[in-house]
């Protein structure tokens, strides 16, 4: 049995490319807890202190360029 109704037609999504949108405000790079075995005390790991490295994204320059191209709206008449 064939359905001829438009409700049953399935259109696959278009593959138009990759999404390059990065929503992270700050990229963070950190390491896992890698420990060193302590010889004096058996079965004890001594963890190294790892500081997080915060890198600001390069999207700030793009925002400034976009804001310069957007026309500023003017105030309309005041309602009494």
TrEMBL record:
Q: Does the keyword Membrane apply?
A: yes
Give the UniProt keywords, A-Z: Membrane, Transmembrane, Transmembrane helix
Transmembrane feature ranges: 37-56
Q: Which domain of life is it from?
A: Archaea
UniProt keyword Membrane present:
yes
Know the name of this protein? Uncharacterized protein
Q: Which organism is it from?
A: Haloferax sulfurifontis
């Amino acid at each position: 049995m064939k359905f001829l109704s438009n409700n049953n037609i399935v259109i696959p999504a278009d593959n138009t490319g990759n999404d390059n949108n990065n929503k992270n405000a700050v990229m963070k790079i950190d390491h896992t807890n890698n420990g060193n075995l302590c010889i004096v005390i058996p079965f004890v790991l001594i963890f190294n202190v790892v500081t997080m490295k915060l890198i600001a994204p390069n999207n700030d320059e793009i925002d400034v360029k976009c804001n310069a191209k957007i026309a500023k709206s003017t105030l309309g008449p005041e309602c009494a």
